[in-house]
Amino acid sequence: MYNLQMILEILLPLPTNKTFFYKNKDKTNFNPKVGSLVEVEFRGKLKIGIIWKIKTKVDFKKPIKNINEIYRDFFFNDEILTSIDFISSYSCNSKAMLLKFFLSNFSKKILPSEEIPNETNFKKITKLQLNDEQKIAIKKLKKHDFKKYNVVVIDGVTGSGKTRVYMHKVLEIMKSGLQCLILVPEIILTGQWVKEIQMDFGAKPYIYHSSIKKKDRERIWYGVANNKINLVIGTRSSLFLPFKKLGIIVVDEEHDVSYKQEENIVLNFRDFAVVRAKNSSCLLLLVSATPSIETLFNCMSGKYKKIELKKRVNNSILPIISTIDMKKEKKDVLISKKLEDTICSNLKQNYQTLIFINKRGYAPFVICRKCGFVIVCKNCNTSMVIHEYIKDSNSFLLCHHCNEKKKFTNSCLNCSHENSFTFHGLGIEKIFENLSNNFPKAKISMLSSDQIKNSQKLDLAIQDIVKNKVNIIVGTQLISK
Questions:
Q1: Spatial contact of 68 and 39, defined as CB atoms under 8 Å apart
Q2: Mind listing the pLDDT tens digit for each residue in 55-79?
Q3: What's the pTM?
Q4: CA distances, 240 to each of 104, 111, 156, 217, 254 (Å)
């Protein structure tokens, strides 16, 4: 039994649910607090952790080591600790694993001189063109107090100007000295948000996601932790930034499946945003043209408030929607007669055609026509998706759950028949192949995360589309943004 002046219960980012006891090495000058970041020795290696609790007595018979160092410039406040504790029990993820993500871009080597400067230069937003519906929505939003927890859903049709509406509130909160976070679902789309916000509001947000340089992530982490950065636009990982004074969280496209993670930790980041907003006593905006069912239910039950935008900017007309029953089309036809005629008409008039398909690869199922054998992932036992079958020699099979990859050979492992595989289901590559065969003179662009791996490639593809160099655009959910 130890009876010391102060024993520190340390949470370390390790694959365990345990915490570990350490003691302060300097009782005179060292005044640790719960949430302080510390360096400790664990099994011969130096680890960064946080002080989870402080005790005076522990029932522990083994020797207790001293902590090595405390980082006085880095401190996790009560909001972060409470959020970790709650989301751990809510999502069945260990506290240590959640802490690992919070500390993933911490660096003890970062210097204050390396911070990214705050270059926000607010413009007079009265010059922005707003329709009557947007003005009413901004007035309604202004009534909501951002210094206490509130959830407001902005439900607006596509092209209704939702970004301009919520940015007025973001700007108001930034001017009050609080920090703002805008979540977006796709990494390569953040550039579009930044350009629009800089142009309209003069606010310089900092982009944060897993594809930016490690050093830049560390500098942003430092700036956020020390309340030097007041506006971040990022993907779901930005919710693990150690904000000190959160004033608002905006979840753009709140319905998007990209906010649901099933690797490393299983977590719905929209729900995590709700937890952080509640514990920060700040405003949360859920923005979407098609809100999720649970969000709509919370609006109906009065838990969330809703602001609607039913008209598009400049009174643009919403498109005509038609439903086609493919069972009435010819057998093995991938594109309906009506769609084919519409594409032909668009080509003659130099109009563009946008085709959305929600499946990556060439086909989601590879089946042997002789014995019925299906190629499945050895890890997940789910069917593997064939990619790049158009190129033949470069064809490969990919599991979309664990990314297991292997070269495709058209020989059945079960019955040994050659060229016996058939490819069932529709993938973007199969649609692209069909369009290329049906419209050989058309310029066709294929956009999916398999082809567009960085923002530079996306910018080039968008430039070609904007300049009307592309006749048909076929893509996955990337193009729906």
A1: yes
A2: 877 777 788 888 888 887 788 999 9
A3: 0.82
A4: 9, 21, 28, 12, 17
